[in-house]
Amino acid sequence: MATATAQKPRLKKLYDEKLAPEMVEQFAFKSRMQAPKLKKVVVNIGIGEASREQKALESAEAELGLITGQKPAITRAKKSIAGFKIRAGQPVGLKVTLRGGRMYEFVDRFLSLAIPRMRDFRGLSRKAFDNFGNYSIGIEEQLIFPEIDYDKVEKVRGMDITFVIDSKSREHCEVLLEKLGFPFKAKK
User: Fold this and answer.
1) Which pairs with CB-CB distance under 8 Å and at least 24 residues apart come from 171-178?
2) Whole-prediction pTM value?
3) What is the set of domains in the chain, with CATH numbers?
4) What is the pLDDT of residues 7-16, one digit of tens each?
5) 172 and 45 in contact (C-beta within 8 Å)?
């Protein structure tokens, strides 16, 4: 009896077969291991009202789980802040770290399904890279993801998505994301 083999995600296959060899040639790397690669994707949601409303935390947790396909971890306040009525240890948000196949599936859905559904989209900023080459995007509403049913949403929430890239150069990271299909604004 033949064993079922897991099919490689579309973007992972594209990276392995086409993009990595192209970047090795483009940047004159000595080894394919030097080519920049997507290491992980971290999705965060801040929920300020979670300390007062347990239902808000539960609904956000269910939505983030649907979007990422993975159970979110609850982030808790490290310090008490009286002005925000938060005590140390209270839940203040959710986060999911995606790696491997799930990461590539999420990035593929984000690029092909979610970004085209953004309102007034003019392209992603090229200024959102940090000093290590990681790229961060702030999303204003979770409704851009097709997994979310508009009628069941209690509150529109934003989220931060960080793409962690294994590379030494910001330029290499930008080229990788462009080749993966990130719709950046045109260079000036």
Assistant:
1) 172/23, 172/27, 172/36, 172/133, 173/36, 173/129, 173/133, 173/134, 173/135, 174/126, 174/129, 175/23, 175/26, 175/36, 176/19, 176/23, 176/36, 176/37, 176/38, 177/135
2) 0.84
3) 40-180 (3.30.1440.10)
4) 888 888 888 8
5) no
What b-and-e string marks burial along 147-175, b requiring 16 or more CB atoms within 10 Å of the CB?
Answer: ebeeeeeeeebebebbbbbbbeebebbbb
**Which is nearest to 114 in space by CA: 71, 159, 47?**
159
pLDDT digits (tens, 9 = 90+) for 38-88: 899 999 988 876 556 777 778 888 888 888 889 999 888 787 777 777 777
Dihedral class, residue 12 (left if φ above 0, else alpha if ψ from -120 to 50, else beta): alpha
